[in-house]
Amino acid sequence: MYHPKAKQKLMSLAVAAACAAFIAPVHAQESDQAGVSPAPSNSGEVQTVVVSGLRASLGSSMNLKRNADGVVDGIVAADIGKFPDTNLAESLQRISGVSIDRSIGEGSKVTVRGVGPDFNLVLLNGRQMPTSNLGDLNGRAFDFANVASEAISQIQVYKTGRAESPTGGIGATVNVMTARPLERPGMVASFGAKAVHDTSHNNLPGDIKQGSATTPEFSGIYSNTFDNNRFGVSLSASYQERNLGFNQAAVSNGWRGPWKAGEGPITQSSATNPPKAGEVYSLPQNLNYNMNGVQRERTNGQLTLQWAPLRELTTTLDYTYSENKIHTRRQDLSAWFNFGPSVSTWGNGPAAGPLQYTELIPGGNADIAMGGADFATRTQNKSLGFNAAWKTDDLKLELDVHKSSATSGADSPFGSSNVLGTASFSRGDTTVDFSNAFPVLSIKGADFTKAPQQVTGSVFQNGYMKGEIEQAQFKGNLKLLEASSLKFGLSANEVKNRSAISTQQRDTWGGATKPSDYPASMFHQESLSKYFDQFGGSKNPNLFTQFYTFNFAELRALTSKLTGLPELYLPKNTFDTDQRTQEKSKSAYLQFGTDWNTAIPMHTNIGVRYETTDVVSTALVPAATGISWVSANEFPLSFGAPTFTTLTGKYKHWLPSVDWDADIRSDMKLRASYGETIGRPRYDQIQGGTTLDRLARDFGGTGSQGNPQLKPVKSKNLDLSWEWYYAQQSFASLGLFYKNLSNYAGQSKFTDTPFNLHTPVGGALWNEAVSKGNCGTDRVCIRNYIFRNHANAPGVTRGADDASGNATGTIVGQPSDPVMSFEINSFSNQKKERLKGAELNVQHMFGDSGFGLSANYTWVDSGLKYDNAKVGEQFALVGLSNSANLVGIYEDKNWTVRAAYNWRDKFLSSTFDGAGPNPNYTEAYGQLDLSVGYAYNDKLSFQFEAINVTNETQRVHGRAESMALFVTQAGPRYMLGARYKF
């Protein structure tokens, strides 16, 4: 067996990260670094400190942690327009307890203290932000890939619940703050440009490459104040291009099962070391190798206007815009398994995966599938907000309103997702070797000359998602006596989410056209192995490496013409499913804070928040009308006019919080916090209707149904921490946390017969073929018998024989046939569990040498773990993992160097694969990033950055390590830029 590289290299790369800080010339650190006052404050307000330089930025972040109520961590920009990372998620992962999910090589979503992205709330300047992501339709997770970092002044991560914080963040509430001109009087302006070179772009087939591997990035910010600092304006903008690629070996349709030992398609006589009694096993539905060329364009901008007509009054009007466009071209090679006669070798249980699996294909006429895709998406975020703050010595009042939206949809006439299938029908016995990290596919009898490539089935989809938030907040802070304050507030939120999708699918996987319809020049021969050169298995001589690529647009146009059915090779103009959810929430809070003049100075904050939410969920769902049997194991559903259904729900909560801290020494602090928080269900968990999946199998179909009456997950949180601030920019801390989770919603499954759909399986014609045709379970034989003996029977439509001599056509279920059963996935509140963990954090600056080190480690544990040997309903916490960070820095008058190593242990990333409710485990992963800056003078500086320096790969597996799901390689990325301050 194998061991992931991340596990092998954790210590060596951690040491490398620290040592890399020493590559710059060593100069004595100047003593006039921007000062950061370490003096403690129990005001409950997070202090804003203007700093310059990376080392001073770390000191300011330290003070943010020290001076806040509860457990708060954060990152402060080294200078306006100069955030430490180009991606906010990449910065957040440096904070203890924060881990990230990556998409196309960039940080996208955050997990905090083992709590997954859906249960972390993201705010922009204290305002709740909508979410929209076609890659996770109906989720609540905010995608940080949509936001550039140029205008961000700081990020605050509130890990403990507070009455004044909006609800929705069980793991944390993340507040992203942008620059405000009146907070930095005078003119500040800068412009930056970068050249980005992504090495992953070079390792792609020519048919999917887009543009050049080297692309530009531009950013600028202007901020100024006028009229004696009573009026301020700031404008920031950025434009970023990136051309990249990633190559992936995948069991993309998931692992069928699990079956119990002795059941299912595997027989003891055909298996070596077969699963034993009490164990379960699964089989791959297919094996797919896909190469992906991606073009990403990201545009961000923000305009902020501030006016202070009175000394006590400041008004702010701001507008934020972002656009993220992603264009993907894909080519793949795959083999589909139908669980017929096989030979296999198995690993050990309790959840057994095959080490080798061979499906025997008599006649050698199965398909070698080679698909292509060309699709694009666009996500737009818009936010318009107004804030008025009145502040005197004893009273502060604030009114804040905003309207924000996030919209994702197709950015291509070919839709937001698509595939055009081609195949050579010459596949004989097919073997997959899963014994190593990289699965190796072997095929006997392949002959592209005898069976040339032809177009088969196709899928064209249009996805759409839009989130909208209208929010009004009124806050107050009244100073009482000399050392106490009362915070109070009211808010009203209306959150709307709409997600919709249409699917234009042609299930002609046995062939839609003839091979002779296409000129040979349309298909381009490629060798698979070179695209997976980071994996040893790519050099395995048994790997089937020959495949053909094509220009998607040209092949789609020709096929559309040849079939005379152009409407089937474009996405629909109407949606098949349309889910709309509205949540109206009202809340009020009180929070009382006071200092205690005792022998040991203490501060307490006691608060309570009341929140009530009404949910209305409406869904347009297709009404299924019939089932057609179109190929060996393809039973697509037909649908009539869709219908809307509406369901409602309601919940309310009292959420208390208590924060206590004590300065046991002038440089040492103890904290204790208790708070109750809630995390709202995902939108797909509360959809208003039943949706059936379009493709069923001979054993039945699948579908999903929401539950708008789901209650939010409620967490009772206890935090203890010790913090030692032993030098101006150095500290050590140990934090312990405990979360008692209730109302956790997991997948539940039930069997139903929606729409009473009749299936040919088990009907009169099927049974006759089994008995009189001696077909047994051979579905190809059964189809041939029915077409050749009952071509004119009701529901039977025979086509021409294919190249292998097998009959084609459709067999539609009749009223006398059995009714198909569907496994319906739904959701319910049933589980209570605890989550506990610890965070160790150290930041040390080595005097005035210019060197510094930041390190942290987070350990988490919970009983909400997936049982790989269990069949049926599961409740598990997605995202739970240990993590560690090590950052080494060097800084002097001219040089700034930072080497950052981030590591995340294995974690459950999903409880669903393409086959059903099965686990996805993302294996341990570590990444080393490096940045070097040189200040030529006070105005001009240069930067070099390297991302994923050691070219790490990623792997996801199922119930056993041998059950590969996704094995991905990309490549390092390098950036060279300059920045000029005016």
Automatic annotation (TrEMBL):
It holds the Pfam family Plug. InterPro entries: Beta-barrel_TonB, Beta-barrel_TonB_sf, Plug_dom, Plug_dom_sf, TonB_rcpt_bac. The keyword Kinase does not apply. It is found in: Cell outer membrane. SUPFAM superfamilies: Porins. Gene3D superfamilies: TonB-dependent receptor, beta-barrel domain, TonB-dependent receptor, plug domain. Residues 1-28 form the signal peptide. Belongs to the TonB-dependent receptor family. This is TonB-dependent receptor.
